[in-house]
Amino acid sequence: MKNIFAVVVIFLLISCQKKEATPQHQITKDEHSFSNPNQAIAKHLDLDIKVDFDTQTISGKASWTIENTSKGNEIIFDENTLNITKVTLGDDEKETKFELGNEIEFHGKPLHITIVPNTTKVNIYYNTTKDAVALQWLKPEQTADKKYPFVFSQGESIWSRTWIPCQDSPSVRFTYNAKVTVPKDLMALMSAVNPQQKNNTGVYTFKQDKAIPSYLMAIAVGDVEFKSIDNRTGVYAEHSVIDKAKWEFAELGKMVVAAEKLFGPYRWGRYDVIVLPPSFPFGGMENPNLTFLTPTVLAGDRSLTNLLAHELGHSWSGNLVTNATWDDVWLNEGFTTYVEHRIGEAVFGVNEAQMQTVLSRKVLENNLAEMGNDSPDTRLKVNSTGKNPDEAMSDIPYEKGYAFLQTIEAAVGRERFDKFITDYFNAHAFQSITTEDFVDYFNKNLIKGDKALAAKIKLDDWIYKPGVPSNVINPVSEDFNAIDAIQKTWRKSGVKGLSQKIKSTNEKQHFIDYLPKDLTVEEMTAIDKEFNFTNGGNFVVRRQWFIIAIQHQYKAAYPAIEQFLNSYSRTYSLTPLYKEMIKTPEGKIWAKQIYAKAKPGYHATTVEAIDGLLK
After folding, report:
1. How confident is the model at residue 28 (pLDDT cuts 50, 70, 90)?
2. Domain check: are 321 and 454 in the same one?
3. 3-state SS assignment for residue 445
4. Pick the catalytic residue: 248, 286, 311, 409?
5. Does residue 255 share a domain with residue 118?
6. Angle (nearest 5°) at CA 20 between 17 and 21
7. Tens digits of per-residue pLDDT, 443-477?
């Protein structure tokens, strides 16, 4: 019986792999890519590159295996600030003509390459330039250990074309192999199967046999070490960070198991993370096999590891099933935020999940208040035509998307909704889909002609209309209700002893979020003395406290605010502070002074965001 069972399992696994490797679907036209993949599409990349820290460039050859489905005479790639030196065709490298089209702001130029009807391989020789938005080159002093330089990439949304010529659209998926040559003292890592220790040659090879979109192409090169957490999870970091990171992420393996129980098997092999230097512009980036993380998640008490749950969740929603265009980004982020909360509930308990949901709803409410309920940018399906798609990003696709999926769960029940999501992931595995694809699948497989259920969920109102529909679920946390009760009395009873009642990061954040609008400097001083918010606490607590400090001109916190803004480049955490500062003339002067010092250490995407605020 054991042998028969083994044969059946092997057969099923092989069948599953074949099915996943060759999904068939029409390629959606992406307004943010010059490519026309329905005529000729890139299917596999063989990348051979050298990373040069002296010139701060990456150079080499991108060999694309293509399908010339139209049997035409041209294939179009995206490039932005690259130096294309030569293009050849086939294994015999016959040189061919190429031409760069007109440049469009943010998008770069189309790379037109002449091919013949039977062309199957295009070899592009190139090097990056110092204008590559996707790459951040760090001097030794900008790293944790301060001994060696570091470089990392950030491709989302349309920046991979600044370090690799590619069809830079989430609708185009490809596999890749890579050979990367780096200085012998450093290790190279990619969004693929990775080495776990340095070699003595400085040459590293990689394989990603799952088809991914270009924005998930990623590279990091630095003096990093690896430590295992369990048999399929581990962490990379600099020497001075590695032990702290391993302790902080000790529950990573449990998160993977919890996610699998909820939504099906993890299909990417290993799940590792790398802690990058402070200039990394996001909380995390879900690069396959290797999530990139900000060091701000290292709180010392495992209180911010919900970020890990979010990036892990992308292994299903985003990496496995991908938004076909950036107008559909809620399919990535809304589903992932839902998955994140479900993983958190499974690992950390219902009370923790309830608190996280209330905090999420507060973020949504803040976004709606700032943007306006009637703003078209508060729709789930957005329109980013003619824009940098990064500009269309806010917390709306995350938090409104999460609230929408909660509404569906409440309408049909968790058991039925879990089956729907699992089936949805399986049905679209390794495919890129549009919002309309989702709506069609939703109506056929969940609504099934039930008009009463459709009216209860209000799908069109959630996806295509601004604001939040009236059927939104109002989250409740008994833990937060207790803090709300404290908010009503502490002004009379004083703040002494409150830190023994308000202990967790969630509780502290909620307490800060709902402090009275007419808070006095004297009251802030007393609160700070009790909790040590200014100089203690983790990244999230300090960020929330600093917003209040700026609003109320609590100058005792100003040196810490300056240090905070100079120490990190986490874009969406820094911009709220700058936004508060520029609301007054004095604050705007202060903001510009800080920014002038901090700007050299910020990532390009952070610079772009802050430049826009301070104009």
Report:
1. confident
2. yes
3. helix
4. 311
5. no
6. 85
7. 999 999 999 999 999 999 999 999 999 999 999 99
Look at the chain and report how many structural domains it folds into: 4
Predicted confidence (pLDDT) at residue 293 exceeds the cutoff of 70: yes
Which domain covers residue 536, as residue numbers?
Answer: 478-614
Q: Which tens digit of pLDDT belongs to each residue from 470-508?
A: 999 999 999 999 999 999 999 999 999 999 999 999 999
Q: What secondary structure letter does DSSP report for 297?
A: G
d(CA 278, CA 387): 28
> CA of 37: how far to CAs of 34, 78, 161, 309, 352, in Å?
10, 12, 16, 33, 45
A 10 A CB-CB count for 470 gives 7
What ranges make up the beta strands (E) of 132-270?
A: 135-138, 150-153, 173-181, 187-190, 203-213, 219-222, 225-228, 233-237
Q: Which of 79, 80, 318 is nearest to 216 (CA)?
A: 318
Length of the chain: 615
* Mean pLDDT for the stretch of residues 31-60: 98
- pTM higher than 0.90, yes or no? yes
Structural domain ending residue among the three candidates 222, 251, 279: 222
Determine how many CB atoms are found less than 10 A away from the CB of residue 27.
19
Contact assessment for residue 284 and residue 311, using Cβ atoms and an 8 Å cutoff: yes
Q: Are 406 and 453 part of one and the same domain?
A: yes
Q: Are residues 211 and 258 in the same domain?
A: no
Is residue 398 part of the annotated active site? The answer reads: yes
455 and 525 fall within a common domain: no
Backbone angles phi, psi at 47, to 5 degrees: -110, 130
CA neighbor of 125 nearest in space, from 53, 215, 64: 64
- Where helices occur in 154-251 by DSSP H, the ranges are 239-248
User: The domain that contains 347 carries what CATH number?
Assistant: 1.10.390.10
- Using the 3D structure, point to which of 296, 315, 334 is the last residue of a domain: 315
- Burial zone of 35 (CB within 10 Å; 0-12 exposed, 13-18 middle, 19+ buried): buried
Write down the catalytic residue from 126, 215, 398, 402.
398
CB-based contacts of 543: which residues, under 8 Å, 6+ apart?
564, 573, 576, 577
Nearest to 395 by CA among 416, 366, 372, 424: 366
311 part of the active site: yes
